[in-house]
Design brief:
Elements lengths: L2 H17 L13 H11 L1 H20 L6 E7 L15 E10 L4 H67 L5 H36 L16 H10 L3 H11 L1 H23 L4 E9 L11 E7 L6 H71 L5 H36 L15
Antiparallel strand pairs: 1-2, 2-3, 3-4
Helix pairs in contact: 1-4, 1-9, 2-4, 3-4, 4-5, 4-8, 4-10, 6-9, 7-9, 8-9, 9-10
Length: 442
Amino acid sequence: MSTYGFAILKLVVTIVAALSAGAGQDSRSIDDPGDLAEQAVKANPSLASMVKQIQSLGQKAEAAVKWNDPVISVEYSNVPWDTWSLGDSAMSGILVKLAQKITLPGKNELRKATYEAAQRVRSLALDEARNQLVASVHAIYWRLTLVRNLRNITGRHVLLVKQLEESARAKYTVGSIGQHDVMNLQVARHRLEDDLEDYDQQDSVLTAELNEALHRDVTTVIRTPQEFPDVENMTRMLRMLPPDRDLLNSARVNRPLLRLMREQAKEHRIRAKQVAYERWPDFTVWAGYRFRAQAGIDGGTDFFSLGLSVPIPFDYTSRSSHDSESQDLLAEARVLGASSIADKIAAQIQVHLSTMKRAAGKIESYESRLIPEAQRTLEMTLAAYQADRADFATLFRAELRLLDFERTVEKAHSSFLVNAAKLEAVVGSKLFGSNIVQEKKP
């Protein structure tokens, strides 16, 4: 067999193998994104830090209702400076004094309520952080799957282009094509090989980001599926969704961020009441016993005393009223902010839904029509090329078209699943089943 004939035969074998590539992967060796998200929620140190802050607020709430410790003081007073003797002056004595600060009724309860409100706000912030972390883990996982699948597709097409290049060189030696055709293939191969390096770099970045969320070594291997779920599974996911209005109503009830804003408004109202009451100062009661010694005609009778002290709040009333009004205004701001967020959520629901529907439609169109047609076109063009009934440029365009279509459908798969994860985060509740990772039907 001539060199030219051997190159053509090798090219046919390579293309047929590439078109049938994509063998199934043992699903048991795949890291499930739901399991990874659950691990991230348990292991992420930022969430653990928020838990400790919530517990700290709980301790402050308990401490707020406790009275201050009493104060005891002992005073050796009014003795002559030159003798330091109690019996030398009727004014001398040893004073033992016990004082207790008394908080106005209801003030400690308001202080506790303020800490409890702050605790509820922080707890909802924790829920929202968990919600966003789960969505982030899913999104990174599917972007990582996309990068690896694009790399696999590109790697297969690098082999195709190499064989095309060998065939072109064989034809060039017999004068069937020009040198520029060979150079075009060489440039295309170099471009695809450069893309492979980009995919390797993106794989490292996404793997590190996912492991960071999981709080483990950033180089830990993440096992992703070789193929995205079947389009029928995605269509089923869309059918599972309730109507748009129900999604919005669910978000208003379940989304931690909206509940957080409403709880912040309540917190500010409680703080307004507390600030208004704090302008009334606490008072201190005390009792003292003065031990005395006989001094001259003074028999040295001991003295007993009771007292009450109250701070004088100069200009404090005006200041507290402004502080209280400030808290009321902040409460109104939180209510308006929650309304604005609800509008954004409604828009985000439509964005994610429309993106998912378009992605599912694109997958259906490409997998059922465009890619099979592109594959048949490449096979037919190859047959015609062997018989010298098709030129090199036509064959080259057929190969690039198939590469573009395969990349497009992979991106549509990833877009669908990333937006599905974001939709769940927007609504604040689980919308789809956990068994999403599965191989395509043969």
